[in-house]
Design a protein that fits this description.
The chain is α+β, with helices and mostly antiparallel strands. Helices cover 24% and strands 29% of the residues. The protein folds into 2 domains: 85 residues, Monooxygenase, CATH 1.20.1280; 202 residues, no CATH class. It has a 6-stranded antiparallel β-sheet.
């Protein structure tokens, strides 16, 4: 995620215990803003190591601007919203190695990979399963009818801000065999703040099925996308619909993914099959009812 610059040995030596008390006294009078800027070239692990070297560095590296810069830089997204939590905690939740199945359904989880981060600038999302750029948005009386007719749907009341996307490999819901190789992939997207909220941590916020769709014929690939409707026709989103630039060759069975500033998509080529069962789940916050997480799961029939 982005380029990481290492501080040179000459810079690191400034925190060395070999310095005399006189030289350290002189060093500690340096402008803290200089070290605040230097810290912006360090990743999270290096920041923690530097903060542990002295009380002076510890106090300097608690600066919110440092962790905000590091978080936005490593997620590769622009600053688009105010956050309710401290940036140091947001960085930890984004890069601490946790994913949504770490909290629930551990027994069903097999593997995962981080796709990246994108932003919702509007409160409306467009979900689709064929990755063909629509000439116009579907218009139906219900979400289920949208899925049946178009293989896509519109979601409203999305929590705006930074979202993180992962690709999950999960055992099929009806299988209890520990030897199951996994026949379900999940495009799993969540708001950056989700893991820090009380409703998520205590389990009171749950995923709810909002629609499902069957394709009862052979399909060449399992794909899915989540888009900010406001930017559905933007140049950066257009790159995502150029499938030849990022999906695998016909005999490449490894999952592929692409993320832009305002969208994310996945594609996995499939061998001979009888179709797919596709489900759309959302999680809403208890206080505002905003959508804070979206899942598109695809299971072989």
């Amino acid at each position: 995620m982005g380029k990481r610059l290492r501080v040179s040995k000459s810079i690191c030596s400034c925190a060395s215990p070999r310095f005399s008390s006189a030289s350290f006294s002189s060093f500690s009078r340096h402008d803290a803003d200089v070290w605040t800027e230097i810290a912006k070239y360090l990743d999270g692990k290096s920041l923690v190591m530097l903060a542990a070297s002295s009380k002076w560095f510890f106090s300097i590296l608690l600066d919110e601007s440092i962790w905000k810069f590091a978080c936005l830089r490593d997620l590769q997204v622009p600053d688009c919203s105010e956050m309710r939590f401290k940036w140091i905690n947001l960085y930890g939740s984004a890069f601490g190695g946790s994913h949504s199945y770490s909290f629930r359904q551990k027994e069903k989880h097999i593997d995962w990979m981080r796709i990246g981060a994108f932003s919702f600038n509007s409160s409306d999302a467009f979900l689709m399963e064929n990755l063909t750029r629509p000439s116009k948005l579907p218009v139906e009386d219900t979400m289920q009818n949208m899925l049946n007719s178009h293989g896509s749907c519109v979601l409203h009341n999305i929590k705006t801000g930074i979202w993180i996307a992962d690709l999950q490999l999960v055992r099929c819901p009806v299988c209890d065999l520990n030897t199951c190789d996994g026949t379900m992939q999940v495009l799993d997207a969540r708001h950056l703040e989700l893991f820090l909220t009380e409703g998520y941590q205590n389990g009171s916020w749950e995923y709810k099925l909002v629609g499902s769709h069957d394709i009862r014929r052979h399909v060449d690939s399992a794909s899915g996308g989540i888009f900010d409707i406001k930017h559905l026709k933007s140049p950066s989103t257009a790159d995502l619909f150029n499938l030849k630039s990022w999906v695998g060759k016909p005999n490449d069975w490894q999952p592929k993914a692409m993320v832009t500033y305002n969208a994310v998509a996945i594609n996995t080529n499939l061998q001979e099959n009888e179709g797919l069962h596709i489900k759309y789940h959302v999680m809403t916050s208890g206080d505002t009812g905003e959508v804070v997480s979206i899942r598109i799961s695809q299971q072989l029939l």
